[in-house]
């Protein structure tokens, strides 16, 4: 796995860069933004702990073929950043994906992502 990319403390820029890398299909670049022991929590999966497990999610488990994220809000509070937005794309089954999401990130003092929690707007109740 690549080394962590240190971006200082501009967490909003790091989050925007992260989603840009995902949208561009640069999974190695996006995973490099995480600290080596980072944890990613996503509905329907056990927590992905460490860069290798996070990369495994993107390479083996993610059901999205391509698409792009848009942002309604990116809010920074110290070492935490929250994002609210949408995603439009195509799944590996060829079907369209159009969803709303919120993500919460935490960062270490070097600017690496230490935690990401994703939430989707879905009819559950």
TrEMBL record:
<dbReference type="Pfam" id="PF12680">
    <property type="entry name" value="SnoaL_2"/>
</dbReference>
<feature type="domain" description="SnoaL-like">
    <location>
        <begin position="15"/>
        <end position="115"/>
    </location>
</feature>
<dbReference type="InterPro" id="IPR037401">
    <property type="entry name" value="SnoaL-like"/>
</dbReference>
<dbReference type="InterPro" id="IPR032710">
    <property type="entry name" value="NTF2-like_dom_sf"/>
</dbReference>
<protein>
    <submittedName>
        <fullName>Ketosteroid isomerase-like protein</fullName>
    </submittedName>
</protein>
